[in-house]
Write a structure and sequence with these properties.
heterodimer, A: 279 residues, alpha/beta, Rossmann fold, 6-stranded mixed β-sheet, 4-stranded antiparallel β-sheet, B: 315 residues, 19% strand, disordered C terminus
Chain lengths: 279, 315
Amino acid sequence: MIQLRDFCFRYRECSQPAVMDVNLDIPAGSFTGITGPAGSGKSMLTYALNGIVPYCYPGDFYGEVLIDGHDTCDTSLTDISRLVGSVCQDIDSQFVASVVEDEMLYGLENFGVAHELIPARVDEALEAMGIADLRDRLIASLSGGQKQKVAIASILALRPKVLVLDEPTAELDPASSRQVFLLLADYARRHGTTVVVVEQKIALLSEFADLLVIMQDGRVRFADAPAAVLARSEELLSIGVNCPRSTTLMNRLAAAGLYAGPVCTDVAQASRALLEVVA
Amino acid sequence: MIEFRDVRASYDGRIPILKGVDFAIGQGEFVAFAGTNGAGKSTAMRLINGLLKPDSGQVLIDGVPTTQLKTSELAHRVGFLFQNPDRQICCGTVREELLFGFKALGELDAQAEQRVDAIIERFGFDPDADPFLLNRGARQLLALASIVVLETPVVVLDEPTTGLDFRECVKVMEVISQLHRAGTTVVMVCHDMEVVADFAERVIVMSEGRVVDQGSTFEVLRNPRTLEEAHLVPPQIVDISLALPLMDARLAESPVAAADTLNEMQVAVETMAGRAPVGGFVLEEAAERLQGAPGPQELQPPAVPVPSDSKEVLR
C-alpha cells in the first residue's frame, strides 16, 4: 500500500536532510508503528505520507513515495487526502467546527459524499470510536481523550485507505491510550485500513503493530516485527529508545542463560515465560 | 506543608471537579498524583498554587489558607510547572525567561541575576536563544529551570514528562530528583507509572474528584482494588509480580511475588531458577539472597547518565 524508495527530504532553510535513505514497504491492512528520539524524523515521515511534503513545506525531495501505486509528487494534494486520512499531533489545530457532529460533517461534505450516505457514515465513525453519546456536545467542553476520539472519528468517516496518526495518545492516560489503540486496530481490521502511527509509547506499539520502525538521526535504524526489534533492547537504549520493562527483564534473563524462548513484547508474554523459568 | 481539608471545587460553580478531597503532604516529600484524565488531579494542583480557590473546605500552605495568601506570597512558596511549556514561556530569550519570575515578584537584583547565570551554566542553555525555536524537550527543561531558579520550598509539576522522548524524560526527572534531594517538596501529576515507581515516595490516587487511595508508592501500585477503581495501569514489573501468583498459587509466597522493580525481579528469578528444589522453593534462602543482592548500579551500568544515587531510573 505504501512504498518509500530512497526517500530523502531537506527543508529549504536547513543544510542537513530531515530524513534520508528511507526505504519502507508497508502492506495494505497492516499496522505500522514509528518511534525514535525527538528530532529523528518521525513526524517528517508522516508528512511524506499525507502529502504535506512536497506540497506544503518547501525543500528538496529525493526518491519516491507511492501510496496505493500513486506517486505523491504526481498526485494532487486533494487526491492524496482522499487516500490518506491524517490526525495531527496538535488536535486542537485540526478542529474546524464547534460541535462534534458539525466536525464530522465538515470533511464528508467537502469530499462531496452523497447526502443520503452521510448520516450512516457519521453514525459508523462515532460508533467505531465509542463516542455516539458525544454527537451534540461542544468540542470545547470535551476532555483531551474525548477530543482525540472525535479527531480520529472525523477522519474515519472519510473512509481513507491509509490512516496516519502523529502521537495520537500524547495527552491521554494509559487506560485511554490503550482504548484508542484497541478501537483503531478493530476498525482497521474490519475495513482493511492501513494504519501508520507515530508514538513514544513503545509498549503500545509493540502490542499492536505488525511492523515497528525505529528512526534515528533521520534514518530508519530498524524496521521489523516488534519482537525482532525489541530483541535489541540494549542497542535501542543506547540510541535513546527505552523498551518495555517486561521485554528488558526477559532479555536480561536470556542473556543470563535462564530463558531461551521468543522475545517477550508485553506483560502477558513475559508472565507466561517467567512461569516456566521459575517452575 | 500542604493540607487539603474537605476541599470542593468546580469550574463556573456548575461542574463539580473536586468532591471533598483530604490529604496532607509534609515538607521534603516526593508525592505523585495518579488517576485517569478528568479525575481532578490538575484541579488539585491549581488549588495548591492558588490559581483556583476552593468552593468550600480549605487548602492550607504552611498552615495558612490560600484564600488568605496574596499571589506573591504563594509564588514564594510554590513553584508551578504547567503541563504544556508553551503556556508558561513568554519571553524573547532564554535569559529573559529565567529572569521573568524575579521580575514578576519585583525582586530583580544582582543576586537574582547571579542565580540565573548559574542555572544557565548548570543546564547548558544558550542564554540568547529564542525559547520558541527550541524543541519540545528543551522548552520543557527551560520551563522547569525557570521554576528551579526561584528556589521555592514546594514545586508542583503537572505531567512534567508528557510528550518527551526517553532521554528528555531522564533529563527532566534528573533535575526534579536533585531538587527533591536538596529538600524541596515535590508534588507531581504523572500518568507514566514507571516514572512514578522510579521516583515518588508516596502516591495519592484520585478518581472522579475524590481521593480513593494514598500510601507508599508500591503499597498503592500493588493494590488490585485501587488499580481497578482508578483505572491505573501498574508498572510492568508490578503487573508481572501480581500476575504470577494468580497463574500459579504456589508462587504467592515466593520472591517474584514481592519484586517491585526490574532489578528485584531479575534477582528473584535468578535465585529461584538456580535454587528451586523439586516440589517447592527454599524461600528463606531466596529472601536472604534478595536482601543481599547487589544494587542496580553494580548489576548493570546505565547507558545514559543518571544521578548517582538513583535507583533504576526509567529503565
